[in-house]
Design brief:
By secondary structure, the chain is of the alpha+beta class. It has 17 helices and 20 strands.
């Protein structure tokens, strides 16, 4: 087993990896940019190395600086977390050349699954179902038009490289496709330095369901069930849960077998996730599902799988990288209860989720039965503007989905983050929606149900009570002071407290 591991990341995932290493008695090395000098992961690690200015392009994305920190710290392995260099084939190869172990899959797996066109071809050859569309890159607009007419509108243009919704356009007819073709290519070029795009049939109300896989370098592979990731905004997940409310044992078996076939096709080892789009039921009630992509790394939403299966995925990644065999067979994997995760961000849900970095003035984190909060911040920490503004991943576990949701609601009501805007109010609106409670989900759930409009209406309804609460607070304090000569009361009314909670103003 390794004695010292460098973590090539920051924030909550760096903290998460540090904890797994400590559980295993492994020393940790943090790296940090100028903006992260006082970050929690830096404070928690056994050693820390400065790697450059605040922009990630000059620090966390510079593989030479990461490898130099590993050499100087005498780290035997590097855990990339997710994002940054976690799916970078060149970094994976550079680790091999430097004689440091990369905690993740092979360069071959990263390369094939990192290219949506190459992965699509590989899946077709492996007998994994894919969404109808082009088998290769689109060469011309006319080819795109011919393909779209052949499979039927609506269709989606997708960038072959990258992700996060960049380079993606939904087109409902020839006119929209003509308009979107150059836009998608330009965005792909700007985001990924690769203008290649392809085309798929657009599924109107699909569910996004993914399967966690785990493999070792000895050829053993298992899956750890599925995660429902259908609650998204702008193609980015915001809420995930395990298991999916629509998956029974037979469906789970079929999803798992398909995911393992996909992993086998690229000789995959370490932790990875095969993402699927699940279509609406056909006339017989069957739900077709299609390969979407494979993430060759740890996922942001891995905690919900850990809560339900009891398996520490980060620890298993480390064991696999050290050459150990998997400790579990497929028959030994048991899924118990349900877990749900909310990604808590410093962003303004009343302003199109615009990032809201800044100093955390006050912080009260939720706790109690079934609550886990993977956080990378502390009271007084200033969330940098240069990076993803994630604050934490709030997870609730219960004996069933209903209990997990109730515990999540409790946790959201306990959570206090003062000094900046967060998306906590959005989750409270989502978690009480009747269709969410029924498990009737889709990737367009937020727009289809007008959740943002409902959120804004709820805020407006609280504006008048806020004014009333302020007047009540002032009159009560003045009256009390006049009667007994005491200092004005500092205890706000219930209306004032509710408004402050809903708007994260504590």
């Amino acid at each position: 087993m390794f004695k010292r591991i460098l973590i090539a990341n920051r924030g909550e995932i760096a903290v998460r990896i540090i904890r797994a290493c400590r559980d295993a008695g492994i020393e940790t090395v943090a790296v940090f940019s100028d903006a992260d000098r006082s970050a929690l992961h830096v404070k928690m690690a056994d050693h820390a190395f400065h790697i450059g200015p605040s922009p990630s392009s000059q620090s966390y994305l510079v593989k030479e600086k990461i490898l130099e920190a590993a050499r100087e710290s005498e780290a035997e392995a590097i855990h990339p977390g997710y994002g940054f260099l976690s799916e970078n084939e060149r970094f994976r190869k550079a680790c091999d050349q430097a004689g440091v172990v990369f905690i993740g899959p092979s360069a071959h797996s990263i390369r094939v699954m990192g290219d949506k066109i190459a992965s699509r071809k590989t899946m077709i050859e492996a007998g994994v179902p894919v969404v109808p569309g082009t088998e290769g890159a689109l060469q011309t607009l006319e080819q795109a038009l011919d393909t779209a007419r052949g499979i039927g509108y609506p269709v989606m243009l997708k960038a072959s490289a990258g992700g996060g919704g960049k380079g993606m356009r939904v087109c409902g007819d020839d006119s929209q496709l003509r308009s979107a073709y150059d836009q998608a290519r330009s965005e792909a070029e700007a985001s990924f330095s690769d203008p290649t795009v392809f085309l798929e049939r657009f599924l109107r109300h699909p569910r996004h369901i993914e399967v966690q896989v785990l493999g070792d370098t000895h050829g053993n592979r298992i899956h750890l069930g599925e995660r429902e990731c259908s609650i998204q905004r702008r193609h980015q997940k915001v809420v995930e849960e395990c298991p999916s409310p629509i998956v029974d044992e037979d469906f789970r078996r079929r999803l798992g077998e398909t995911a393992l076939r996909a992993a086998q096709a690229v000789d995959y080892y370490s932790a990875g996730t095969v993402e699927m789009l699940v279509d609406e039921p056909d006339e017989k009630g069957h739900r077709p599902f299609y390969f979407l992509e494979m993430n060759t790394r740890l996922q942001v939403e891995h905690p919900v799988t850990e809560m339900v299966t009891g398996i520490d995925l980060v620890s298993e990644q480390i064991r696999v990288a050290a050459g150990e065999r998997l400790r579990f067979s497929q028959q030994e994997i048991q899924m118990r209860g349900a877990a749900i995760e909310c990604r808590v961000y410093a962003e303004d849900p009343f302003n199109n989720f615009f990032p809201s970095p800044g100093k955390i003035a006050t912080l009260y984190e939720p706790a109690g039965p079934g609550i886990r909060n993977d956080s990378g911040v502390y009271e007084g920490f200033e969330i940098p503007i240069q990076y993803d503004p994630m604050i934490s991943k709030l997870v609730a576990y219960g004996a069933d989905r209903q209990q997990a949701i109730r515990r999540m609601v409790r946790a959201l009501q306990e959570y206090r983050i003062g000094g900046l805007r967060t998306n906590l109010p959005f989750f409270e609106v989502l978690l009480r929606h009747p269709d969410f409670l029924k498990g009737d989900l889709s990737t367009d759930f937020i727009d289809r149900h007008g959740l943002m409009e409902e959120l804004k209406e709820e805020q407006e309804e609280q504006d008048l009570p806020l004014l009333a609460a302020a007047i009540e607070f002032y009159l009560h304090s003045a009256d009390r002071s006049a009667k007994i000569g005491a200092s004005p009361s500092s205890a706000p009314s219930r209306a004032w407290r509710d408004y402050g909670r809903f708007n994260n103003r504590w």
